[in-house]
Design brief:
The protein contains 13 helices and 11 strands. With 338 residues, it is α/β, with parallel strands linked by helices.
């Protein structure tokens, strides 16, 4: 299996993508990696890598980089020799089975759609995220911004794709699928959410009904479906809350007495375990669901560990047959009339 890695994407490039790829190769002897980017920068990060690992790593030159703030369509058009475009072309030509990138999300999604197209039967692709949960299981939320709005048929597609991804690539049997809403009753929410509820009752998923935002971490669902506007707000709010809590705890500890500091030291091991469970890097990256090829998006601030797990995520999606499964479920006749 050959996975292309965008060595120039993310806040910590090229160090994190290159080191993460090398770590993934060390853990999977059946894997080959194509590192896409500026050869000199990649070579610096590969210095000292074990020969058995380095020989399964091929460098593919790409001189240009699409930055995080660039307009996606213009960047793809003007930077044909960027690491994102070259990586996608490797997949299109069959030289790679999938691409992993922590780069510009909009450019990556737009490029994947231009390169692969949509899976037959999918009305709109979706971008999921795996939210860390305290039980370590994780929860798939989609859409988080591929499209800011969605109708009932889109939400139906998201539910089917999210369920298949959770089952085939995350190893959770019969995942519980819920609709994010302002209440748990069937008639709650907007006209779109009420219509989606009706469609999901007959969907080929284990639909458990509506859940509220406070239930996201209550282990009542494995997949939660919403439109891209709400999903993006949820994710950004959780990120900001996590940063704020860390800052508050740090200030409080600095101004605490000896007894509190001793208690914090005694609890440190437990807190480290909790932090690992809530760490997004454990999940690596997620695929663009509904796109006709494997494209894994990692968080922009991903370190080597997260990029390593992103490569493993790509390998799992490739090996799972997820794209064929989605096409089979959402192809002709696979969705009820809305």
């Amino acid at each position: 299996m050959r996975i292309a890695v965008d060595a120039m994407g993310g806040d910590h490039q090229p160090a994190a993508p290159v080191r993460g790829a090398l770590e993934a190769l060390a853990e999977r002897p059946d894997l080959q990696v194509l590192l896409v980017g500026q050869p000199e920068a990649i070579a610096t990060e590969m210095a000292g890598a074990a020969a058995a690992v380095a020989e399964r790593c091929l460098v593919i030159p790409a001189a240009e980089v699409i930055g995080p703030g660039e307009a996606p369509t213009a960047a793809l058009r003007e930077k044909r020799n960027s690491s994102i475009v070259v990586g996608l072309e490797l997949c299109k030509s069959g030289r790679a089975d999938g691409l992993v990138s922590a780069g510009n999300t909009g450019a990556l999604m737009a490029g994947a759609l231009l390169t692969y197209g949509r899976i037959a039967g999918v009305l709109r692709p979706a971008m999921p995220v795996v939210l860390p949960t305290v039980d370590g299981r994780g929860l798939v939320l989609l859409d988080i911004g591929a499209h800011v709005d969605a109708d009932a048929r889109n939400l139906y597609d998201y539910a089917v794709m999210g369920s298949l991804y959770t089952e085939t690539s995350r190893g959770i049997e019969r995942p519980r699928v819920a609709l994010l809403n302002v209440g748990t009753e069937e008639r709650k929410g907007t006209a779109v959410s009420r219509e989606a509820f009706g469609l999901l009752q007959s969907a080929p998923v284990h639909f458990v009904g509506n859940i509220e935002g406070r239930d996201l971490f209550a282990n009542v669902a494995d997949v939660v479906v919403t439109d891209g506007f709400v999903g993006n707000v949820v994710v950004k709010t959780l990120e900001g809350f996590g940063i704020g809590i860390s800052q508050v705890m740090g200030r409080e500890l600095r101004h605490s007495g000896l007894l509190t500091l001793v208690g914090a030291a005694l609890a440190a091991r437990t807190l480290r375990r909790l932090r690992r469970r809530m760490d997004y890097s454990e999940y690596g990256g997620v695929p663009f669901l509904g796109v006709g090829g494997v494209c894994i998006k990692c968080h922009g601030s991903s370190g080597a560990r997260a990029m390593k797990n992103g490569v493993h995520a790509a390998a799992r999606v490739v090996g799972s047959g997820l794209i064929a499964s989605i096409a089979g479920r959402l192809g002709e006749g696979g969705r009820p009339d809305a």
